[in-house]
Amino acid sequence: MLTLAQAVQDGPWTLPASVRSEAAQQEARGHALTTRDLAAVDRKLTEARDLLAASVCEHGEQDMSLHYSPALLMLQTALCYAAARQSDRALVIFQRELRPAAFSLRECGYFRAPMADVLADLGEPDEAAVVGAQALSIARITGSLRTWTEVSRTVHALTPWLARPSVRTRTRGTAPVYALASRRYGGEGAFDHSPCAISRTTAAVGAKSAAPWPEPSMGE
Question: How far apart are CA 74 and CA 52, in angstroms?
């Protein structure tokens, strides 16, 4: 990710400001995931914000990144801080910016999963379980494999608190997610390794017409 994002910015071509903004943000996340250089992360995120603001003023520019908005950049910023182990900063952004009015249901579900991870990292398992359950519910409604996969991270992060009644209640009925988390992270004991569980994972991810779950609350 880091090398590719740098290549996009350094190549012998002229790209719209919005595309350069997205590349700068991707470089920031690359630094967060690899070097953990927080100064580099902040520098590239500032550059991304400045470029995106400049793109609004570039009249006549054919925008190659129509999906990229200031609201999305803020959530991507939260992901960067989460990857850099700056969970407190990430949570502030998630809580402020993750609004149903600004994003589709699929996007709200997807970003709720890393928000749950951040809450778990900050030692808030009860709230993490609530947010993770919302993400999983939305994933079942939208049929989002990407969200389902991200929720498996939340399940893994909540493993130390599975004995808590609130966490156990919220994760009840998520055996397929436990199987997926086990396959991804190699956990033992808490996860079901059986072929039946893994089969349920595959079936649940693909079953858009599965029995409906309660409509999730989209309020913050």
Answer: 11
